[in-house]
Predict the 3D structure of the following.
Amino acid sequence: MGETLKNKPKLMDSIPASFILTDIHTKILYANQQAELFFGYSREELEGERIRILFLEEDLLHFLPNIVFLTTYKNGFEGEVLLRQKDGMKIFVHLSTSSFKEGGEVFLTFYFQEIQRLKILEKERLEMERWASLGRMVEEIAHQFRNPLSSVGGYAKRILKGNLASPKARAYLERIRQEAAAGRTLVLASGAHEEMAQRVADHLGLFSGIVATRHQHMVGTRKAKTLCEKFGARAFDYLGDSSTDLPVFRACRQAHVVAAKPDLVDRLQRESIAAEWIPSGAVPALELWSALRPKQWLKNSLVFLPVLLSHQFHNIELVGKAVLAAILFCFISSSVYLVNDILDIEADRRHHRKCLRPFASGSVPIQTGILLSGLLALFALAGAAAVDLYLALLLGLYLVLATLYSTWIKTLLMIDMVCLAAFYALRVYAGSAATGISVSSWTALFCLFLFFSLAAVKRYAEVGEEIERAAAAYAAEVRARRFPAPEHCFGMRPKVEAG
């Protein structure tokens, strides 16, 4: 096989996945240690056999020959396949194949990866994205405090991310579409790089040209000078929202300002610059209400359990304290839901159902969610401290535990279900703290097992849904594959009849 192939075993034994090398007839020439461990065969048992030993009987006629054909004559094969181990166990793997030539011979490579391992890696990637999203969110909030969006470039990024639903962005788009419908020539003047600006212009299909950053940052005086050279001084209208646009506002015929900040309003008025003020509109109340997840508040009815079990439901004072505790728990839980949705925003946008959530869809700005979450948590803890310090401690514990769950604990097997059960138990003990009715050991044990069972059922349903969607996607992928007809597959030739 040549000097190169003689050196491959040491290299291939070091990779963390199963690797098999075959000749053009799929005879196994080499299998690394991971392949031995994964499929249950020794290296001696595999070498000399054909790769078909790992495939199911029903795949030997068409599916395997097609894979070999694609590997030999095309760009290889990549996808999920169902294989069998030595003990007959069937297992899904991700298979990647390729071919190469050496010394005039053609060799095929088969690279197998466990689906479970890939899912773990994907989960780790999503976790890194979640923290990266939090970092970007903090950076954006800091930028908002330092300086409002200085150009359409900020909206360009939102457009390309599929998140152009904030109130200010909606006001921009609504006015731009109105002017386009009136037949006016529109040019996107942005401080963003011209490549991004062009992508935005192409995406919206409303602009006839762009003025954007290439070698020099296209903002302020430079933008005003460029627009005057292109259209003439006071021969164009300008739509903007930032104080950095002041030189452009001075040079244009009519200024149109979206959601202007007080300092920008003062400067325009002091310079007697005629401007049309365009309000940004408010966040839809229904979307903001939905972000609080009021449907989840039903769980907070568990605070009434101590009153109910002690048969004190006729005591108006105790019931009132329980109602107050339930309201405070609604505040603290909604605060956590807001933070959780913001942290999961990138993953939610890729989810078939969660993409409709207020933050993922862009109907509620992230800054609004952060502010509202902080206010709800502060109000809940302050109100709980006024009622009972033990109640405030329980709410604080819930807040810390729920935050840890959103960022870390949800990835830990079994511990995540214990944490979910603890959330329910904390509601019961919050009712006990508010009313002064102690929880018996029998009630505590019953709640522990009941809530853990509910958490297990929740996880079972989520895993079942994920498996069903994965199976449906796999079936659709198999049906959609466009393999060559069987008679054109490698190793199969059309039969020629005499006649």
About this structure: Residues 136-165, 482-499 have pLDDT under 50 and may be disordered. The radius of gyration is 32 Å. The longest strand covers residues 90-102. The chain is about 55% helix and 15% strand.
